[in-house]
């Protein structure tokens, strides 16, 4: 295909008339299909669905050259009629189109979550991690629930000063329900109304408008996600019982008119509620870590040896130990690489048509970064399917490694603003777990150890398939340290 400007489109598989490539796209594990297409057509693959163009970037080079270096053109989000406009997720930074409101929200996130600002959250992350370790000691078999509570409580404390003590917490339940129903509605950008936008004007009572009734249910939950925590915080601030938080800092500045940068409470709701996606991702990473430690006891033992030598047995690890624990960092990087938390990132959109490597990328093209494939690029990672933290120890020309953190958080002007904060939290949880617990395979009826089979769910975020394991305290001394760890700020 040659476009009107005389440049061909990037290569891609043959399309069917009108519907384009819709039948090539599987509903599950799309990143694997995209990687196969990449082997055949190169690291930029062009496709279209009902005439709407999309490209898949299979290499870190093309993602960097387009989404970072040409960020002014590639930082928009695709127009998702069902998700953004009907369910109203477009109140959140994550789905905002590129423009003034986006820049305003990013600036606010950046002020509080940049690489130095996140240091102020460290005492809270330590406290929440201690609480988590105590829960692990009491009921290690419920590790998934404890990880969930750790993430929910840390994020809610940081953002709204609200401590989550149970899974039935009103805000967390509302947010999880909204996300669950949204995910069940199908992949963003693949619903009929996304391609035939006038369908959104169908009255809800009409046959064929079931999607709209369903979407309205989600819209109410999304509204609650925005309103409940900020309204509760305002009550606490009025009664002088609020803890300092991201949202309270924004509300204070707004009320005292210290800034003209944001003009409406709705902005505060939109920017703070963006944190929820982060909880789910940190959960995916820590669950993958537990699975990796069960499957690779040699990696866990090596990290534990390093921790014992540096931290000793009289205290729990802390942030200031990090620079002396290089192997723990390797385990963290390998965990992030091995199970990429967001395999296809969040799609960007080209605002204007562009020429790249002699090919035309039309205006409006949806740009998908296949981060899963980038984390398996043999140019950087030998035997990419193997879990091998050592690959990050010796970056020589044969095994030149790329830090997964340069890809798994996305690219350019839309790169994850929570990346420094989650880097700290994930590291602390991993190092404390390694210092105090052993991770063992479950035992079958004949008393034999059975290694769990590693597998990851398909979906927008990649979580390990449910698995069983035994988690036991490393020693009575370790258990005592956990019991004595301070948890009240
Ligand atoms: C392991 C943890 C995390 C991973 C892997 C992750 C990954 C990502 C990715 C891939 C994107 C899309 C970037 C792009 O469009 O190129 C993103 C966006 C975003 N993340 Fe994260 N994230 C994590 C944790 C967090 C946390 C803890 C927060 C909140 C403090 C957060 C807040 C956001 C927001 C608000 C956006 C939307 C940014 C925008 O559209 O401009 N994330 N994240």
Automatic annotation (TrEMBL):
Pathway as given in its UniProt record: Secondary metabolite biosynthesis
Coiled-coil region(s): none
Name by which UniProt lists this protein: Cytochrome P450
Family: Belongs to the cytochrome P450 family.
CDD domains reported for this sequence: CYP64-like (cd11065)
Binding site for heme: 416
Keywords noted in UniProt: Heme, Iron, Metal-binding, Monooxygenase, Oxidoreductase, Signal
Swiss-Prot/TrEMBL cofactor(s): heme
Pfam families: p450
A GO term for molecular function: oxidoreductase activity, acting on paired donors, with incorporation or reduction of molecular oxygen
Domain of life: Eukaryota
InterPro entries associated with the record: Cyt_P450 (IPR001128), Cyt_P450_CS (IPR017972), Cyt_P450_E_grp-I (IPR002401), Cyt_P450_sf (IPR036396), Cytochrome_P450_fung (IPR050364)
């Amino acid at each position: 295909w040659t476009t009107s400007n005389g440049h061909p489109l990037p290569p891609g598989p043959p399309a069917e008339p009108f519907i384009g490539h819709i039948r090539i796209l599987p509903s599950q594990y799309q990143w694997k299909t995209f990687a196969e297409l990449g082997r055949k057509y190169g690291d930029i693959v062009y496709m279209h669905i009902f005439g709407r163009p999309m490209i898949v970037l299979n290499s870190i080079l093309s993602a960097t050259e387009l989404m970072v270096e040409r960020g002014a053109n590639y930082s928009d989000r695709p127009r998702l009629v069902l998700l953004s406009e009907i369910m109203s997720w477009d109140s959140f930074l994550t789905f905002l189109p590129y423009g003034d409101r986006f820049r305003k929200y990013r600036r606010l996130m950046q002020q509080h979550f940049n690489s130095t600002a996140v240091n102020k959250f460290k005492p809270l992350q330590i406290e929440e991690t201690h609480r988590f370790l105590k829960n692990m000691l009491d009921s290690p078999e419920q590790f998934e629930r404890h990880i969930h509570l750790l993430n929910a409580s840390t994020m809610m404390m940081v953002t709204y000063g609200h401590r989550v003590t149970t899974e039935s917490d009103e805000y967390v339940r509302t947010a999880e329900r909204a996300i669950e129903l949204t995910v069940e509605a199908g992949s963003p950008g693949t619903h009929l109304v996304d391609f035939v936008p006038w369908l959104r004007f169908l009255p809800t009572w009409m046959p064929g408008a079931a999607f709209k009734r369903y979407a309205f249910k989600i819209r109410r939950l999304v509204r609650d996600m925005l309103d409940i925590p900020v309204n509760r915080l305002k009550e606490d601030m009025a009664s002088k019982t609020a803890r300092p938080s991201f949202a309270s800092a924004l509300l204070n500045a707004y009320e005292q008119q210290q800034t003209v940068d944001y003009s409406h409470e709705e902005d505060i709701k939109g920017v703070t509620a963006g944190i929820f996606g982060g909880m789910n991702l940190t959960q995916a990473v820590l669950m993958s870590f537990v699975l990796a430690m069960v499957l690779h006891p040699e990696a866990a033992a090596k990290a534990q040896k390093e921790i014992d030598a540096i931290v000793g047995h009289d205290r729990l690890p802390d942030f200031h130990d990090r620079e002396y624990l290089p192997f723990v960092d390797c385990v963290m990087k390998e965990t992030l690489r091995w199970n990429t938390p967001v395999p296809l990132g969040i799609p960007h959109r080209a605002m204007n048509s562009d020429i790249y490597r002699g090919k035309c990328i039309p205006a409006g093209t949806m740009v998908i970064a296949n981060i899963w494939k980038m984390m398996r690029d043999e140019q950087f990672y030998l035997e990419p399917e193997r879990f091998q933290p050592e690959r990050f120890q010796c970056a020589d020309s044969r095994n030149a490694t790329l830090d997964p953190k340069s890809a798994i958080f996305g690219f350019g002007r839309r790169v994850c603003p929570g990346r420094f904060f989650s880097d700290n939290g994930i590291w602390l949880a991993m190092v404390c777990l390694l210092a105090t617990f052993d991770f063992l395979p479950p035992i079958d009826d004949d008393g034999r150890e059975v290694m769990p089979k590693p597998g990851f769910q398909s979906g927008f975020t990649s979580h390990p398939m449910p698995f069983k394991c035994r988690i036991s305290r490393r020693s009575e001394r370790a258990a005592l340290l956990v019991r004595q760890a301070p948890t009240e700020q």
